[in-house]
Automatic annotation (TrEMBL), chains A, B:
This is IMP dehydrogenase. CDD domains: FDH_like_ADH3 (cd08287). Belongs to the zinc-containing alcohol dehydrogenase family. Pfam families: ADH_N, ADH_zinc_N.
Amino acid sequence: MLATVIYGERDVRLEEVPDPVLSTGGDAIVRVVAACVCGSDLWPYRGVAPTNEPHRIGHEFVGIVEQIGAEVSTIKVGDFVIAPFYDCDNTCVNCRNGVSTSCLNGVWWGSDDRMGGFADGAQGERVRVPHADGSLVATPEQPDDALVPSLLTLADVMGTGHHAAVSASVTQGSTVVVVGDGAVGLCAVLASKRLGASRIIAMSRHADRQAVAREFGATDIVDLRGDEGVARVQELLDGIGADCVLECVGTKESMEQAIASARPGGMVGYVGVPTGGPIEIRPLFGRNVGLNGGVASVRGYVDELLPEVLSGALNPGRVFDLELPLAEVAEAYAAMDERRAIKVLLRP
Amino acid sequence: MLATVIYGERDVRLEEVPDPVLSTGGDAIVRVVAACVCGSDLWPYRGVAPTNEPHRIGHEFVGIVEQIGAEVSTIKVGDFVIAPFYDCDNTCVNCRNGVSTSCLNGVWWGSDDRMGGFADGAQGERVRVPHADGSLVATPEQPDDALVPSLLTLADVMGTGHHAAVSASVTQGSTVVVVGDGAVGLCAVLASKRLGASRIIAMSRHADRQAVAREFGATDIVDLRGDEGVARVQELLDGIGADCVLECVGTKESMEQAIASARPGGMVGYVGVPTGGPIEIRPLFGRNVGLNGGVASVRGYVDELLPEVLSGALNPGRVFDLELPLAEVAEAYAAMDERRAIKVLLRP
């Protein structure tokens, strides 16, 4: 089959790779209907994270189940399924605690499953899922094709934006600042709106992203960053700051901006993969600003968000502004790298 | 009157200072019945925090109201009152948000009140309280002298231990680790017990403190620290870690130990004044460990904790293991510095 392999900086290739095969009994093979490129895929693409040897890439997909192992009980051949951006058993103590990204038996896509099998990367034609019952969520029926983009966001960006909002304790009437206008930041705006935030300030300097942020519920746009951005946010919020700040970038600068935008007693929910250095505790301590979040346990959120996506009430798929065939995966990366697209959907 | 002045490293003196006088209408003058020495007073005493010029010191006291300003409405002359370790108006937006340590009009004891008056340090005979209605809580009647130590803990250490527990979301059935066996750490054990924790592991290497921790509800004592301490905690908690970790020290090492003791998705509630360098985000991010806390807003906790202290259900005063006359304040500092006492109560 064809799948995407990253070789190094700005070098991703669609290549012939071995077809996946069932091996452990609890696994399934899924034909990918749609995959996409994540902001975090750009770290190795840009060389910020080194690629020591070529490896499979991609961690977001939806698809149709083609084969299941003998022990699979909740997933059936033919099901349309959403996979989270990681494999998990959904039964271990960490999964039960709601932190399935720390699953004791979990596997990252594109790596060995420590049971003798391989979990394929998502930017390919098929993926072997080690823990099918734990990881996959089937839709009640085959969804309309128009719903595919929104369903695909449940694999990562919508769940991750929701995690930022939940981690920051966004609730009815909250004032919210969202730092970051990538797909996750935009989904964080949508998640905040859904949870009842009364004021949502989106930090964005790009007209196309500002437009989506407005559609998703942003009440204010601030097109400044750093100290200037903080000053403008404080001006909008009576000099006190926001109840909740959603950090969706991951740099040291964005984290410091997020912390300074929170009010005393406020909470920063952060989901941006940290790429900066360590942070000072004093600015948190002195003002009782909390820091909560991490690798989003999106598996647990699919059940909560799926009905609203299926009903059309929630349309996070709007973050995809470019769709390409899988054969053009290299162009998909380039378009995101050069900010010509917010997020690119790939169809095998 | 007599009050304590710190001159520099290991140099505190009881001196004649001007009597406090009413000046703003909303103020009160309180005769101190009991004060004490805080772990944080040891930072300047030990020279860790420099003392550039002599200044008044002490921030924990209970006492009897002697005079009130014309605008004071809830506090009366003759009331026995508990003061938090800071002055606050209890009406500004930050106070209403439960973060009275960030009061927009707040004053630290031992400093000018920015209204032309002075807020005395607590280790003295009398204290002028700038915002009497906001800061002071009167007991319903004159308390028995035996209750004075426990009432005094509501000024800081019991409220601060409670803040650590609340910030870490301790609730019925939580597993808790408390890092730090000073008065605040011990009160954090008591607060966790009160909030329903099922397992409380106290990190302590001192027999006297271990005994108090046991009395306060610790189910396990770990007399190791650093990586060894973490390994022992993980062994006690099935290799997963604690739901809640209460950091009551403030060094970089204690914070790292606290973070490593939390389970994935767990929360570190920290109240130790940060004296270490910056901390890495990755160990928090990868395991979804949150960080919450700061300068404890104890004013808001007095109302909740006071009835249990008055009824005798809660006995945090047990942390005082030495009582001295105010005249021996220098010896009080020395006893705490040399760990001859957990916490010293001073009687003017």
